[in-house]
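Re: beginner question about structure tokens

> Can someone show what the tokenized structure looks like for a real chain? I only ever see the sequence side.

Sure, here's an example I had lying around. Input first:
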Amino acid sequence: MKAFPWWLIRLGRAGGGRAIGLLAVWLGWERLTDLLWRPRPVRPGGFFRYRIVRYRGPVAVLADGTRVKPGDLVVELHFDNRRLLALSLAGAQLPWDLLRLARLDLAELACRIARGELGEVQALVGITLFARAGRRLGFEVHPLPPTWYHRLQRFFFVGLIAIYHPLGWQMADRYRERAWPGRAWMSRTALLARYGAGC
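And the corresponding structure tokens:
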């Protein structure tokens, strides 16, 4: 029974930023959340998009002692999936080019935060299946509890990988088998220490 949803979404085709069959719902949901949340690109040609939000989760104590409390301002990060597609079609060296772009985005955010342009944000945060890449960038990644909601998030993320990654289901199946979503955090202090030198 657990395998049925995965079998169902694989009845259609996916790849190249397109989806035929049930996965087309993923593209519709992505467009809807873009309209509702309106994430902005960190910089032209970058990989991250972001929005400034009030944190609503439980108190998070980060590795450097930063406490993020409900109501604190945070920078919520999102991948630009269409940028991933464009890079793959242009022959980019994935994932190295993505890590390079992400570092440039984080340096830009560090400078904006240092100048006070984004308000008194306490941390950057995002939900991801890419824990290893997050740690390479300096994030600490806390696995999410195995609730139905987070299982649904994982289901959705794996579908997006099938749609946008150049390897399609070949890559998505790897994440289906091994990956679990985590909340990636980087405190304001850690961001400025790691990426703020050029500000």
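Each token stands for a local structural state, so reading them left to right follows the chain. Residues 96-114 form the longest helix (19 residues).
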